[in-house]
Every structure is written in structure tokens, then in C-alpha cells.
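Record type: monomer structure entry
Structure origin: computed from sequence
Chain ID: A
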Amino acid sequence: MDGWAAQRSRSLTPPSRPGPPRTSPKRLPSPQPTGAARIPRSRAAPSLAAWRLRPYLALQRETGAALDAAARMLAAVSGGHGDLREQERDARAAVENARNALDATRSMVPANNKTLVQLFVVVRIASRLAVFASGLAEIRSRLADEKLSTALDATINALARNAREAGRALIESRAWHADQDFDAARNRLRECAASRTAADQARSAALSVLGKSRLYVNELAAVCEFFTSTRSRQDRWLPRLALRERLKEMAVAVGHQFRWRTTLFRHALRLGVVTALATGIELLWRFPHGMWLPMTVLVVMQPDFGATRGRALIRAAGTLAGVLVAAAILSLTDDAVVWQIALAILVFLTAFSVRISYGFFVACLTPMIIILLALHAPGQGWHFALQRIGETLGGIALAIAGALVLWPDWISHRLPATFARSVAATGGYLQAVFDAAAEGTGLTPGVTAAQRDAQRALGDSELAFQTLLAEPGHRAQRPRFRHLELQLGRLSRYLCALAARLDAGLQALPDMAGLGAAEARRLAAIADGLGSGTDRQPPGTAPTINLDTAPEDIHELVVAVDDAVSEILATRNMPILR
């Protein structure tokens, strides 16, 4: 997301009590970045399918949800309103979802469509507010003055309330104007007397960030006014779908997957072979309900072994729990009316849980099927339960065997290269931030692009490591990459704080250019070593930190960045995963 990095390793503030109910229209999932290119996934499909009904409804909901997620992150910064790490993940996912939805629509509308322009403005504001939340969290963590902390909390809460109300107004297409509490809270913060120089510097930095936030609040009010004006109605209708171009894009996307090296192609071939084998076993031994065998294979088998094993465990546990429920119902009574009542309840629970929890869905589906069969053939319920267990476990065994034997794609072979790309991208981001600080140019597009690349690469490495944990073997070789994952997240958090200070108007610090180049060279050396499979020694020694003219918080952040880079370099002394 534009302007701030993931805080995977630890939060800026300790976890606090759960916050208020969410106001977004739906729960936003955590992002799942991958290294392969893919067509942007958008939840704007309902509106794109019904052009002339409510064409921009889904897009407005996406952008409003992004704004609401940024508001929750701001509320978490002030303390007592939720976990900052969770809110940051939600904000990142919400902004990415909104951006993907708008990007997918932009190619289908005229270039001068005013509504899309306004929605892109809202997404940019949500991203910037999340950046400011990260910077304000750093500032607040250094405030020891209780009076200043209280005043800052009140100001951040007022900003979060304005962002939340603006998101609701956008979703409901109604006018909205910022309340005066935010300005009053800023004035109270400005009038608070600081007890020492460091606190006064932190207050000045916070006021600078909050002043920029006020400009974004005014932009939100203008966007809400646009959506309620009669002049915008003509722009709110999308043109007809360019079907030929969309079909061409689909054909290209499908064609790229018809290659042996792609994971999707091998998974499709593996799934077809194992399903055919399960069907052959069913026809050869003539199981009473043999369709359960290939059906289990189709449901359980996933593209990688870790996901297949996880789905298999959930399927087995849910089936066993469902059989126990069915056995309890069938053994307690023989009354068909009671069975029908239980069946109605199970049908409701099955439909209710299908999108919530796969394990609970299976635990409800299994007794529903067994009771249906028992109603059709009284006295055979126990046989149906045993058949369900046996054929489900057989399908699970076939799925796991197929994932292990048929063209497995082990993440352990690609993990060093994935982490090498993450370290190299983080090094590029570090140098971009330090160069911008040295020149005093503020948050330039180059810094934003480097930050986006680093976040994407870091997400890829985190996902790859989580996949590795589900694979067999390599247990003794995992600490190095766990250490890398944590320290890269830590370094990204510190660079995020520096980027926030750039946006707040940091003065030029020429000495940071040399420091950034030296740190980037150290990271490039470890990236080359990971990519080539060797423990390459980084050139030179640790840079000398000499920033006497820099603000105190900048000096602390530079020291923290150097410490995080040194921790990353320490991984060369650990066993490499090959």
C-alpha cells in the first residue's frame, strides 16, 4: 500500500482491549501476496455485471471500507481501541482491494470519468491516513508527558471519527462536513506546554502530521459533496462492457497457465489423475456410496502440500465430529419427526456456515447426509456413518499421497531466492528513504514505489515461509528464515516511520546519503548470498552513525535501522536451506 510498511514482527504499541464494532460493510481478509503476476481480484463484480442498476455501488463500498479501516487504525494508535497490528493488516487489505477494484474498472470507462477520479482520491486519502497513523504511533510511543499524550490521543480520536463518518457518508452517497472537534483538539495540543525539548519536538512533528491530515479531511468533504450533486449523476453511469477486450484478456491469462512449470497446470493434472484413480477404485470395489471417495479428493487436494494437509485435517476432524452428532441423534430416538426437526436445524447450520468455517460446515453437513439416508432406509444409520468415515478417510489418504508423489512443488527449493528478493527490495527502499532525507525532498514518488516493491516482496517471503512450515522436513534449517522474516518486518517498520517524517516535512540531512548507501550495500551482499546459496561476506564494516544536527527521533530511528540491518546480516552464520 502507498506510504507505509507492514509491521509483521511487532506492533508499535502493545495490544489493547478489543475496539468498538466495525462499521465497514464487510470483514476484509488479510492480503495473500504471491510472486506470480495475476489479474487484479476485485469484489466489484456484482456492480460490473448489473451495469444500469447500481453500477458504482460496489466501488463506493470498497473505497468507504478502506477509509473506515484507516479510521480504525488511527483509533488503535491512541490506545484502548484495538490491536494496531490487526488494524494495520485490515487497512492494508482494504486499500489494496479498493485499488484493485478501481484498476479493474478504469480500463472499461472513458479517461475523463469524474466518478472514478473521485474514488481514486478517496483511496489515496485512506492510504495517507494510514501512513500518518504509523507516524503518529511512533511519535506517541516517545511521549512521556501525560498531558501531551492525553491531548494527542484526543486529537487522533477526533481525526479517526471524521474519517469514519466520511466513509459512512460515501457508502450512503450523502453529504458530510467535518466536525469542529478535530480543530479544537489540535488547538489544545498546540497550547500544551512541553516539559522538555524532546517532548516539544515530538509535539511539533505530531502537529505537522495532523495539519496535513486536516487538508485530507477537507478533500473528503468535497468528494462526499460530489456524490450528492446533480452534476455528477451523468458521470456515475458506466459504459457498456468491452466484451471483446475482456475475452482477449481472459484468453491470454488462461494461455499463460498452460505450461508445465506453472503451479496451476501441475495441480490440475495431479487432481485429474488422483480423481480418476478414486473413481476407478469406486467402480472396481463397488462401494455403497462410492461417490464420497472422489468427492473427498476434489475437496481436499490443493495446489501445495501444506494446504492439502491442512484441508485434510479439517475434513477428517469435521467428518468425525459430524458422525458423532449423527450417532447421538440416531441413538437417542427412533422418532422420524425428531429426526426431521434435527435435519431442518442442520440444513440451516450448513447453509449458515458455508462461508464462515469449513470445519464447522463439514461437521454440520455430515450428520445431515447421514440422517437423510437414515430416513430413507430406517435401521441403516450406523452403516451409513461407518461408510462415511471410511470413504472420507480413504479420499484423504489418496489426496495426500497424490500431493506427495505426483509432481510436488516444494517451497523449500524457492525459499532462498524469495527471501533474497525481499532483502534486495528492502535495501532499495532503505536507500530511497535515506536519499530523500539527505536531499530534503519529502516523500517522493520514487520512495513510494520502492516502499510498494519492498512490501510486496516482504509479503511474498512471509507467505512462502508460512507455506514451508506445513511441508515435511527441513525443521532444523528454519530458524534462519524465521529470523530473517522478523528482522525484515522490523526494518520495514523503522523505514515506514522515516517515510512518515519525510511526508511531515523533514529538513535536509546530507549525512544520511552515505549511511543509506552503506546499509544498502550490506543488504545487497546478503541478498546475493541467499540467491546464490553461499555465505557471502558483506563488503566493509558497519557505517559510522554521525547525525549531530539531526532531530533526536531521527537519530534514534537511524540507529534502530542499523541495528536491524546487523541482525539481518547475522543470518549468514546460520545453516542455509538447500
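Annotation 1: The radius of gyration is 28 Å.
Annotation 2: The chain has 19 helices and no strands.
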